[in-house]
Amino acid sequence: MNAQGRVTLGVLLDSLGAEAVTALCLPSGRQATVGAPVIHGCDEPMTAFSGALLLATGRPEASLLRSAAEAGASAVVVRAGLGDAAALTEAARDAGVALLAAAPGLSWGQLYALVDALLALAAPASDPGGAVDLFTLANQVATRVGGAVAIEDLAMRVLAYSTIGGQPIDELRREGILGRRVPEHPTHAEEYAAVLRCEGAVWSHEPREYLPRLAIAVRARCEALGTIWAIQADQPLASDAAAVLAEAAGSAAPHLARLSLAADEARRTRNEWLGRLLRGAGHVDEPAASFGLHPDEPVRVVAAGEAGGRADVLAATHAADLLRTAYAAYRIGAAVGVVDGRTYAVVAAGAGTPLLRRVTADTLGRIAERLGGHWRAGVGRAVASVAQVPAGARQAEEALRALCGPSRGPYAAGEVGLHEELAAALFLMDAAASMRSGRALTGEPLSLVAEHDAGQGTDYVHSLRVWLAAHYDVPRAAETLSLHPNTLRYRLRRIGELIPLDDPDVRLVLGLQLRLAEIQASGASGGQMPVSGVSGGQVRASGTNGGG
Fold first, then answer.
1. How much is the pLDDT for 543?
2. What PANTHER family does the annotation carry (predicted)?
3. Which CATH superfamily includes the segment(s) 9-122?
4. How many other C-beta atoms can be found within 10 angstroms of the C-beta atom of residue 362?
């Protein structure tokens, strides 16, 4: 690493490996440095990209390379197989900008995360003793033991991995590299615990469907900081593999200690600043500026969590890390962190709702793949300034509860729900809450039909529910009930003898009683997102735009 925030192209290529990115043209050689990655659409206007690694989406043209060089980019990454490779290479050589090719199966978000991690983990050249970075260490160990190596922290995040050619890896390692975290598996808890209990290297043969691994804990002053794993494929590992891993653990300990302290301090600071914004505590200028947000710009609040409502701070922290990286990859200004055990983001509204929805939904899918469960995100209405974030936070929490609850409507079919789209669900939630202690849900007119069912053995309540759901369409409702339409018409006439079924008000009340009873039953069985988070209360924010 030659400059703070940059790595040489040689380190980049060697660390990520040919399975991620390959070189097409290096006009200034492997010693040229690159900085932060930036995802850039080929049809977007160029801005200043001083030293950046430009990840060019879409089908690139030769003019892109000239424009990128003029904007100050150090290197451009295109999708392998897209565009005229020869013309692009010639243009890159003429422009003096490096040209790399990303593997076809690697998403731009994944490549961004890999480069971002490399920039964070590569050790400065001024490190005492000339210590190598973790990626170099992983390659050195892999060469000596004869198997692919990964270095992880205690949250099973993959910090670095080896890229030695010819060393096989399995799907577990591949997914861990691309997702920056080892995928969930029922055997992991015990396997990792066994590694952390031992002073030396131990073998792990679980999960059985993957290759066996030799693993060792990384410690500093008896405190566990992470683990190192070496895969054994067709050929046995070197006879001194355990000793090599022990030596590597000693070399990795200062790195992991520094990273752990820096990451914990950075997260703590981010979460404190974010908590101040969400609660409206004090002046907003300083915390807003710390996240790169302007105090007077419109923002939206995003609240994310697992649909089952499981409280897991580690999962929320990992989700926040992934969301932060994803938003940064698409240049969406955002303050992301964990407050009261839930993942929140205050996002610049200028990013555009479709982009925000897409990036958030894609990231939630990755979170679910890595952590399990069904992750959802509620998005509050755009508020006029950062000072109004508390109102946006209440709306985001309400949208999340509606999205995870039983009153989901057609707009709540996906992973991300906007507050303005969930008006019907929010109304039903409020109505159910207000009637919880009264007899309105169990009283007339529905109670008259239910009492007849109980006394006569009929099933009129179910028939009513299906008929109302079919918008009074008898043939469609009869088909759902597996009845002849005339049979259903006869039932409806009999119900009409109990209650005035032709009265539109009676039909409205019946529909509400039936639907709210379903919502309450689902909530009682644990199907709703529990109330938590910064706003805490049940009172909904105003439905007017701006969260007033």
1. 35
2. CARBOHYDRATE DIACID REGULATOR, CONSERVED PROTEIN
3. HprK N-terminal domain-like (3.40.1390.20)
4. 16
Place of tokens 């897409």: 358
Q: Do residues 178 and 106 lie in contact, with contact meaning Cβ atoms separated by under 8 Å?
A: yes
d(CA 64, CA 43): 9
Summarised one tens digit per residue, pLDDT across range 419-434 is 888 877 777 766 666 6
In whole angstroms, give the CA distance from residue 147 to residue 237.
6
pLDDT in tens, 2-44: 344 678 898 888 878 877 899 999 999 988 888 888 888 877 7
Which residues in 396-441 belong to E strands, given as ranges?
416-418
Give the DSSP letter of residue 383.
B
Give me the CATH code for the 281-434 domain, please: 3.30.70.600
* CA–CA separation, 351 and 132 (whole Å): 39
Superfamily classification of domain 134-260 = GAF domain (3.30.450.40)
Residue type for 387, please? A
β-pairing, 53-57 vs 37-41, is: parallel
Rg (CA), the chain: 29
Cα gap 397→402, rounded to integer Å: 9
Q: Are strands 342-348 and 299-306 parallel, antiparallel or unpaired?
A: antiparallel
Instruction: Find, among 82, 84, 78, the residue nearest to 23 by Cα.
Output: 78
| Residues written for the chain | 548
